[in-house]
Amino acid sequence: MVHKRNVYPNMKSLEAARHIVLEAFGDHTPGMEVVPTPEAVGRVLAEPVAARLSSPHFHAAAMDGIAVRATDTFGAHPSKPRPLTVGQTAFYVNTGHVLPPRTDAVIMIENVQEGDDGRVVIEAPAFPWNRAERPIAIPPRIPTPRRRPASAGFSALVAAALRVFMRIKP
User: Fold this and answer.
1) What is the helix (H) or strand (E) element at residue 25, kind and residue range?
2) Cys staple from 121: which of 28, 89, 100, 113, with CB 3.0 to 4.6 Å?
3) Is 36 in a helix, a strand, or coil?
4) Spatial distance between the Cα atoms of 104 and 74, rounded to a whole number of angstroms
5) Under CATH, which number does the domain 30-55+136-167 receive?
């Protein structure tokens, strides 16, 4: 005799479950109110919030290392290391630093060997925008609903918004 296993013996369909909940509690969607941004901490967003500006507004290093133009690194391989000249084709950067002009990638400092006479040596190529951050054309949005208290990222995102639409507290 084959026994059919039923993990959820009393499982209801989504429609049946929705009917049970709405019958018991009704459709009580809280209203909206506009509140100053500092008062939004711990509240639930009623509408998505879009940042007015990208942050950072410049190309930045996503980690410590050397900033390079990716095309200058193509062809680097353990069997054919590529030397780069510090201050010309390689620039030391720390996380968050502005990328020097004409650079578009960062090679992690752990993957950089310091050579003689102001040169560094790499054994793998970098790809454009690898470990580098670019400003984005469309500022990020915080979707709804957001039920957690505001974090530092949330605060930074809505810093340009003086007021936000929040659900009315129950």
Assistant:
1) helix 14-25
2) 113
3) strand
4) 13
5) 3.90.105
The domain covering 60-133 belongs, at the CATH homologous superfamily level, to Molybdopterin biosynthesis moea protein, domain 3. (2.170.190.11)
Q: What is each CA distance from 60 to 57, 63, 170, in whole angstroms?
A: 9, 9, 43
In terms of pTM, does the model score above 0.70? no
Helix (H, G, I), strand (E, B) or coil at 64: coil
Put residue 84 in one of left, alpha, beta given phi > 0 → left and psi -120 to 50 → alpha: beta
Contact (CB, 8 A) for 61 and 131: yes
**In whole angstroms, what is the distance from residue 96 CA to residue 157 CA?**
17
Q: How far apart are the first and last CA of the chain?
A: 55
Other CB atoms closer than 10 Å to residue 109's CB: what's the count? 15
Structure tokens at 149: 């208290």
Residue appearing with tokens 């560094």: 120
Token representation of residue 88: 């010309």
pLDDT of residue 45: 79
